[in-house]
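Lecture 7 notes: from sequence to structure.
We start with the chain below.
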Amino acid sequence: MAESFVLILCLCMVSLFFISQADDLNDDHSINAISYDGDTFGPGLAKKRNFIMFYAPWCGHCKNLAPTWDELAKIYNNAEESPVVIAKVDCTVHTGLCADHDVVGFPTLKLFEANGETHKRYSGKRDLESLKAFIQEQIQGLGSETDIAAEKEEELERHEEPESNVITLTDEDYAGKIAAGFFFIKFYAPWCGHCKRLAPVWEELANAFSKDENVFIAKIDCTQSTVVCKAYEIRGYPTLLWFKDGQKIDQFQAPRSIEVLTKFVQDKLTVEKGEQHGHDSEKVPEEIKEDSAGGAVVELTEENFKTIIASGLVFIKFYAPWCGHCKRLAPTWDDLARESSGQPVVIAKVDCTQYKNVCEENEIRGYPTLKIFRNGELLNDYRGGRTLEDLQKFVSRQLDQRDEL
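Predicted structure tokens for the same chain:
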């Protein structure tokens, strides 16, 4: 009996010991690597240097590194005047953030300078001493935080281009500046790779429209102007939005080349100016059909689409200006319109980057999509060859079917 009592007592003491050790372990890990997401990443980098582990939970190497990374975090994140923040990003959750930073393998370790504009990728050993040595080496090479801030300010002054035609917006002046007129605004973050690549193109776009008093090319830094960016639910960078008199009208989602961006702005201005001049939409269909008879491709919009297809045979190309296949088809489509001159068929097209509702209603899933309508009803999706001869034969068959009816 006494032996049993002693055994039970020993077991209790062992249990208490392990519970105590577990509590100590939890306390030790209370200060660990900071987890960043899309909302906290930019502000975190804006404050201080960051050494960040981009990882995936399923990655074996990441699991092996995790305790060492937390040890590193205890050293630097707990210091009163730490020169660096130890952080991490789960790339299975924040895929866009990791894509912006060209993360293609796990774990990827990067030390970012304050403000995140430059970084150094770590490719050495992953033991604690090697990681600490890397941090110290980078800190000594970069100088103090004060020096870095001063150097960056001087660099900005040296590279500042007062002649830039891109308007800079902030939380404070945003509403007042965009209250009147057309604004094409880039919502961005300084650390974003795609934003950096877009920057010179955006400048070129602003220069192209610098003499046009109807439109303004602008930008807003979402790491600084968080109120505006949250109001428009900006989740990725860069986000490009089109505004009219302070109201969001559209979002640009095509390739960001200067040609496509310029076409987007020109098309927007054309549509807006047309509306301002009070064009009579009820008169457009007859004029369009006359153009079609003369060999011109009819441009359909949300206003005239249903009216145009309501009667007769209408063959429509649904396209996007940036689409390579669409560009190759364009001259053939123009030829088809000319060759169909005098026949009872309208050759038309719809720009799906401009008239999204029309394309969604017609279930457009790819470009170009060719559909033919008779008296407002869909007859067929065309899936044949795209030579002029192929298209002409298709139209002729549809006309013959009409005659048989």
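Points to note: Residues 14-30, 143-162, 276-294 have pLDDT under 50 and may be disordered. DSSP finds 15 helices and 15 strands in the chain.
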